[in-house]
Amino acid sequence: MNRSPLSRRRPRLLRLPWLATAPPSPLPTASPIHQLLLDCLSRVTDPAPIARLAQLSATDWRELVQVSARHGVGPLLYDRLSTGASLLPVPDGVMQTLREAFLMNATRNALLYHDLAQAVTTLQQNGIRVAVLKGAHLAALIYPHIGLRPMADMDLLVPKEDLAKADTVLCGLGYATNRWQDIETQCRASQHLVPFSKPPHPRIELHWTLAAPTLPFQIDMAGILVRLRPATIAGVETHVLAPDDLLLHLCTHAAGHLPVPFCHGFRTFCDLAAVLRHHRAELDWAAIKGRAVGWRAGKGVYVALRLACELVQAEVPPTALEALRPDNFDGQGYALACEQASFIEAEPTGTGNELDWPRFRVLVQGTTTVSFAGKLKFLVRTAFPSREHMTIYMAQFHSLPLTGHRRYTCYLTRALDLTGRCLRLLRYGATHRQETDACARQLQREAELRRWLIGPNSP
Length: 459
Hints:
Blueprint: H1 32-41, H2 47-54, H3 58-70, H4 74-83, H5 92-125, E1 131-132, H6 134-142, E2 153-157, H7 163-172, H8 183-189, E3 196-198, E4 201-207, H9 221-226, E5 229-233, E6 236-240, H10 243-255, H11 266-278, H12 285-294, H13 298-312, H14 318-324, H15 331-342, H16 372-383, H17 387-397, H18 406-431, H19 433-454
Parallel strand pairs: 2-4
Antiparallel strand pairs: 1-2, 3-4, 5-6
Helix pairs in contact: 1-3, 4-5, 10-11, 10-12, 10-13, 11-13, 15-19
């Protein structure tokens, strides 16, 4: 099904002139389906959610299943509903759909762990110390079943000085990467190298730190590497983050996610709740507060944990949460975070469009502090990228090698492509003002939330 440019997940638009004075709309409240999903995920004993489930129509049930899938918690919803099957009035067709999704995710994860075991084993055999991050760690050691946590790729942490060797090892295993910058240049812009792919196997991301260097966080990687814990994942002896560092990583990853904080929906807060439950007796809240402040991530950590408590009843001690509360905490900013936590639309179908609209946020009026000179530099860099980038661009989108006269005409080809896509987007905005207006307001809120969470004044 073809979709308009504005129907994508979290669309970004160039600011259109008639939207310059558009008044901000009030923050929307959580829909009943969202609230019911949260009740199901929270293991609540209140009979009210059960009564509301009994009143759902067939259309409501379909929406509940779809919303859970978009938030990445479909397998968890199946677990909650199947656990209380004797009490919850769930239609058989709904349970069958959720069960099939759970089994498919479990199968996909099992195959992912097979590849993970091979990659980790080979890296360690070459003298590279590896730590498993995020989903692969959570599904294997934190959640009670590997099928309860969806994963898209494998995230591995290696020391920065071993990145080049790890790159060579993965390429020896058949993985490829579309790198058009050297490793040192990539490290200045991102917390991981360009992903390694080997279709149809899952991608691998090699991390050297836990947050992008472009963010204001000051993460103590030396301390994190010292505190790594031995663990067995997929039958392989490896390492994982210490409990305190794991909790902080999940919080900072959610709050500092590019391009929008908290864009993974309810899954983030379910991850936090699972870590808090699993490591309840091991967490040192004084150390967590000290590191959050030292990492300059205090506000993001507090917001993530508070949202986890309020949305899925995560078990954070009230005194610890209050101690984490920043002195300059702003209720309006927190309201934006609450909104963003629930705002997640259908995934895009994928059009093969090389134009990455989120990159044009620097050009949008009122959503960034980038200077005019910075915006001009961005435009020049976008119009005339490096020769390496153009080699990939021409091969991927035009199936042509960058040889002969194309070395010079490729920039004209790219300019025509970008101009055509911009004109189509502007034409849609001119004929669909209501949708464009709503998207522009959402973009403004996301930018405001991002500045509030990780701006220069954030603790």
